[in-house]
Amino acid sequence: MSVIEDALRKSSAQQRPRSNFVASGWGSRVTAAPAPEVQSRHFRAAATDPEIIERNHVLLGVSDVAVARAYKILRTRVLHRLAANSWRSVGITGTTVGEGKSLTAINLALALAQEVNTWVFLVDLDLQRSQVGSYLGMNVDFGLTDYLTGQCELDQCVYDIGVRRLAVIPNVRRAENSSEFLTSPRMGEFVQTLTDESPRRVIVFDMPPLLASDDVLAFGPRADSHLLVVSQGHTARRTMANCKEMLAEMNVIGVVLNRSTEHNDSPYY
Question: pTM here?
């Protein structure tokens, strides 16, 4: 049974959804000893808003042990799949709006950056309904659309938000012809530059929902792999089946089930 078929089975139970995302205190944790210092390029500093982060259930403001553990498990599984195939990037998409794909992309990027040997780019590719910057409470001048339209250089839209090993490329202006931008030569140069960055980074793309536009189909071949985010009580079986067909020619490494009614409150496994 494929991961999508398994998610189809789980999503058929139409029970009242329960959110797994409970706020505050990601910083209060014990971390591994730091790795030897690795030199990396310095990016523009950008402040984030702790109140907005907590309100949006971003891991930086989450104290729920089960939530943090779930993202660490997701991180480890993603890293294993990427390493097994010599892949560098993963696109995060959903079926429709409201399934939590942007939050999943942000929190996966944060969990990846917490791993001492992993450097990360988080890129907002949802050019029509961008959420990464607003979820983090960023207030910046330039974003990805500005780079793609030639209004800024790459260094002007890559930001350091104060999380070690993580750089964020948000989007601050809506792009009407988003699929054309995503297949443009300048986008190809953008992806190649991120891929060539030293130290080597995992690239997490927050992509639009599959059924909202043709953006995922247009950009999909540029990403090495994809994660599909679905929501229990929200994602219909027929919608899942349609998305399975659309993703058939892409490397789908898993399905993330949000708002599951199955909740583990144990402090350990």
Answer: 0.84
Instruction: Kindly state the greatest CA–CA separation across the chain.
Output: 51
Give the integer Cα–Cα distance in Å for 135 and 9.
31
The arithmetic mean of pLDDT across residues 67-73, rounded, is 92
SS3 at position 169: strand
Of residues 29, 40, 1, the one with CA closest to residue 120 = 40
**Could you report the per-residue pLDDT of 169-196, keeping only the tens digit for each?**
999 999 888 999 999 999 999 999 999 9
- Domains of the chain, start order: 3-10+45-234+245-258 (3.40.50.300)
Tell me if 63 sits within 8 A of 28, measured CB to CB.
yes
Q: Do residues 43 and 159 make contact, with C-beta atoms less than 8 angstroms apart?
A: yes
Describe the strand order of the beta sheet including 44-45 as a list of residue ranges: 44-45, 159-160, 166-169, 119-124, 201-206, 89-94, 225-231, 252-258
- SS3 call for 245: helix
Residue 258, strand partner residues = 231
Question: Which residues, in sequence order, are CB contacts of 192 under 8 Å at separation 6+?
Answer: none
How far apart are alpha carbons 248 and 114 in whole angstroms?
A: 32
In angstroms, the CA 240 to CA 269 distance is 30
Listed residue (148, 60, 66) closest to 109, CA to CA: 60
The pLDDT of residue 138 is: 97
